[in-house]
Amino acid sequence: MRNFNFQNPTRILFGRGQIEAIAEQIPTEARILLVAGGGSIRENGVLDQVRAALEGRTVHEFWGVEPNPDIAALTPALDIVRAESIDFILAVGGGSVIDSAKLIAAAARTEAEPWAILAKGARVTGALPLGVVLTLPATGSESNGAAAISNRETGQKLVFVSQLCFPRFAVLDPETTFSLPLHQVSNGIADAFVHVLEQYLTYPAGGLLSDRLAEALLITLKEQGPLALREPTNYEVRANLMWAASLSLNGLIGQGVPQDWTTHHIGHELTALFGLDHARSLAVVLPAVLEARRQQKAEKLLQFGARVFGISGTSDAEAIDATIAQTVAFFESLGIPTRLSAHGINEDAIPRIVAKLKFNRRLRMGERLDITPEEAGKILALAL
Q1: pLDDT per position in the chain (384 positions), as tens?
Q2: What domains can you pick out in the chain, each with its CATH number?
Q3: What predicted TM-score, i.e. pTM, was given to this entire model?
C-alpha cells in the first residue's frame, strides 16, 4: 500500500437550518464576496437564508457562474476582490460555483496569471479563505482542494489542486436540494459514482478498508439514486446522497490505493470540445474504459460486480460482462445516455480528442500510466 496523507481541514455543517451557522464561521469584520450561479437560490429561499445569516456584514455579490465555468467570465470577480478589499469568499451553489470560488481565491493571492495556475502548473502561493453553502451534491468540491475550470477560447478544461483552497467550512443542508431539476440530480449521482470508481476500479493493493468504504458509497448511490428521482423531497434520501457525494472525493477512500482518472481526463475533453455535461461525459467514457481495460482491471471488476451488484455463479469473463452491463444499466436508469452517438458525436471527433489530450500533456494515463492518447482514441471508438 502507498503512504497515507489524509488532510482535510473542511468543517462540515450538516443538516436542516445549518445555513444560519455560517455567521459563526466567518470573522465579523470580514469583507465577503458571495459567488453564485443563476437565480435558483433566489427562488428556493437559500439566498434569503444566507443574507439573513450575514445581516450587518459587508457583502458583495458576484453572479452568473455557469456550468463548466470559463476563466474569462471570472475576471470581473477578481476586479471586485481588488476594488473592495475582499478577504473572504463564500460560494453558494454546486461544483461549478465552488470551483470558481477556489480559482478566485487562489488568483487573488498568487502572482501568476489565473490561467497559468491551470495550464502551466503555476504554484498557488496564497489564497483567500473560503466557505461553501452547497446546493448541488455531485463533485465533492465542498470538501477538497481541487477545481476544474474551462477556457472557451482555447477549448480546454483543466484542473488545479492546492491545500490552500480547501474550504474552511461547508454547509450541507439536504433541503437545499429539493427543488433541483431531476437531470441535475441524475448528474450528481453519476458524478459521485464515477469519482468512487476512479479510486476503486484499479488493481488490488492491500487497501481492504478503502475498498469496503468505496463499496459502501457505491451501494448507497446505487440504491438511493433512483429513489431521489422518484421522491424529490425525501429528506433521508437526499441526506444520504449529499453525504455520499461529499465522501466520494474528500480524499478518504483514495488513501493508500492506486487511482485511475482516465475517464475524467477523456471526459474533460468531451466537455471542452462539445459542451457535454461533466457527469454525462463520464457516463459515456467509463464503460468503454472498463471494456478496454477488462484484463488489467479484472480482479477489481470481479470484486465490484460481486460486492456491489451481487453477480456470482458465472465464469470470470461472463461476470465482467455482467458487471459492465450493470454499470451501463445504472447510468441509463438515471436517464443518462452511455454512447457518444446519443450526443451527436461520431468517429470523426476522435482524432480531435486525441490531439487535445496530447496538447494538454495527458500522455500517460491510468493507474499504471500506460494509457496513451492513441489508446484513449481506441477507448472512444468503443463508446460510439
Answers
A1: 555 666 788 999 999 999 999 999 999 999 999 999 988 999 999 999 999 999 999 999 999 999 999 999 999 999 999 999 999 999 999 999 999 999 999 999 999 999 999 999 999 999 999 999 999 999 999 999 999 999 999 999 999 999 999 999 999 999 999 999 999 999 999 999 999 999 999 999 999 999 999 999 999 999 999 999 999 999 999 999 999 999 999 999 999 999 999 999 999 999 999 999 999 999 999 999 999 999 999 999 999 999 999 999 889 999 999 999 999 999 999 999 999 999 999 999 999 999 999 999 999 999 999 999 999 999 999 999
A2: 11-176 (3.40.50.1970), 183-382 (1.20.1090.10)
A3: 0.96
Buried b (16+ CB within 10 A) or exposed e, 216-240: bbbebbbebbbebbeebebeebbbb
Output the nine-digit C-alpha cell for 23: 455567521
- Residue 244 in contact with residue 221, Cβ under 8 Å? yes
